[in-house]
Amino acid sequence: MKHKSIWRFLTFLTLLILSFALLTYFVRNKHTTAFDELLLKKVKAMEAPFVTTIMKGFGFIGATLPVIVISIILLIILYRLHKNRSEVYLFIIVLLGSTAFNVLVKTLIKRKRPISDLIIESGYSYPSGHTVGAVSLYGIITFLFWRKLETTQGRVSLIFFSVIMIMIMGFSRIYLGVHYPTDILGAYLLSGIWLYLTIWIYQLIMERRANESTKTKE
């Protein structure tokens, strides 16, 4: 891999990590309280029965059991279609890793959730587990299936679907009143860091394997 691409990778990764660290510092020291409460009030004003039903639906989709079921189905599809174990391993590492980091940060920060009158949620607030899961799941789906789609329309549709799912999942947590806006932003950054890092390492390993295979044939 060229040195320029490595430096680009390291630069962007550093920016993501610093952004997450800075946001976490502000959250832990309650510097974002006024901002969070203001946005929560604005979103609260948008409440409507139909919208609430949709947001609760997204909350269900992003829960642990549905995510596990979706993941298993996708893993089976990936392996049956392409018999590529490395992609299956990548998929599992991305999801398990992001979950582990989410639990770790929640435990360290111990931020209490906002009080919601729409649904009841337990556990700590920062960062949003539903959002971390959405970024990891739909992010890795986009990466793995994008390379297998041959048409531009198919790839654009895949990216559009994933972005919509990730954005609505994050918004639904704010709408339902179980997370602060900065919980969602923190989740985007944390999961984005892990997803970016694991995909880059995966591509590096695959590139090295391809080079070794070429040298062996020669």
Q: Give the biggest sheet.
A: none
Q: What value does the Rg take, in angstroms? A: 19 Å
Q: Distance between the terminal alpha carbons, to the nearest Å? A: 20 Å
Shape summary: globular
Total strand segments: 0
* Helix-strand topology string: HHHHHHHH
Q: Let me know the average pLDDT.
A: 90
Low-confidence stretches: none
- How many H/I helical runs? 8
Strand percentage lies at under 5%
Tell me about this structure.
The chain is mainly alpha-helical and 218 residues long. Helices cover 80% and strands 0% of the residues. The chain contains 8 helices and no strands. The longest helix has 37 residues, at 181-217. It starts with a helix and ends with a helix.
Strand-helix topology:
Blueprint: H1 3-28, H2 33-44, H3 49-61, H4 64-82, H5 85-109, H6 129-146, H7 152-175, H8 181-217
Helix pairs in contact: 1-8, 3-7, 4-5, 4-6, 5-6, 5-8, 6-7, 6-8
Concise overview:
The protein is mainly α and 218 residues long. The protein contains 8 helices and no strands.
Features:
80% helix
